[in-house]
């Protein structure tokens, strides 16, 4: 009598999943403070929120996201311990935009075949980024999908929950005529627009091991540069009364103008000076290789601005000084004023379903 089909024969190795958990446990545990109960391995992560009793009106903020096709670069280079920064940055930095402190995060990894060392590397990166953000990694799931994904393929996603006191909520309601727009530098491409970037380098015939003079390193190293995680720094800035933070905008898919417009109220417009910063080399290389129009770059990539703070006019100097103390490169992008209703090509109004204010990009980028 022939043997029956087992789960392992079908392509799922539960023992490999258990080994991966053992390899990642210490990294996950480092994100746990006394509020985390139960440690690693429970069906649900437990987080003590007794501190919410001290809030007058606590508001929970939640976000979920993935890394997108940047995972293809990690897979091609067989480097997996940095992609977690991209995941955490995409999630927690959406939460901090409203002034919320990201408390807990969970992750989900789908793969064609569980290789314990690879899964552990991914989670170690997620945990390291959670440490930077001050967020507890309280749970996760690894799913083996043979036949749906190739053995070396995987995708990652995550979700987080944070809290903000209602009186401290940041957003369009606080933005005023005369506010100053401040840029917080990105670390590179972050985790958006990689379908465009990969198409450009494929068309150019460039390989990931190619040394690129403008980068001072290989193409692959530049493309895999981890996303800067802003959460802790943005919270520190928002808690500095002198900085007068009114709103943040996380510059992800859609680019600077569209995302900034989401946090401006109707009737106000932000004017952004393209000449206020030098676009990092990676964006100019992508533009030149693919003859990508500037308009498409602006609507797809961050061009060197990963986060934006909108602050009171009297708080701009204090905000820039505080960001310098925190080690975050920052500069003044422009100002907020009453919207004149113009509709020329350089103006963006609202985005992603938000009927917000307007953003005008003017001038030329520095060479």
TrEMBL record:
Gene3D superfamilies: PurM-like C-terminal domain, PurM-like, N-terminal domain. GO terms for molecular function: ATP binding; phosphoribosylamine-glycine ligase activity; phosphoribosylformylglycinamidine cyclo-ligase activity. It comes from the Bacteria. It catalyses: 2-formamido-N(1)-(5-O-phospho-beta-D-ribosyl)acetamidine + ATP = 5-amino-1-(5-phospho-beta-D-ribosyl)imidazole + ADP + phosphate + H(+). Residues 176-340 form the PurM-like C-terminal domain. Its EC number is 6.3.3.1. Pfam families: AIRS (PF00586), AIRS_C (PF02769). Residues 57-164 form the PurM-like N-terminal domain. InterPro entries: PurM-like_C_dom (IPR010918), PurM-like_C_sf (IPR036676), PurM-like_N (IPR016188), PurM-like_N_sf (IPR036921), PurM_cligase (IPR004733). Coiled coil: none annotated. Keywords: ATP-binding, Cytoplasm, Ligase, Nucleotide-binding, Purine biosynthesis. One of its GO terms (biological process) is adenine biosynthetic process. It is found in: Cytoplasm. One of its GO terms (cellular component) is cytosol. Pathway: Purine metabolism; IMP biosynthesis via de novo pathway; 5-amino-1-(5-phospho-D-ribosyl)imidazole from N(2)-formyl-N(1)-(5-phospho-D-ribosyl)glycinamide: step 2/2. CDD domains: PurM. NCBIfam families: purM. Belongs to the AIR synthase family. This is Phosphoribosylformylglycinamidine cyclo-ligase. It comes from Sanguibacter keddieii (strain ATCC 51767 / DSM 10542 / NCFB 3025 / ST-74).
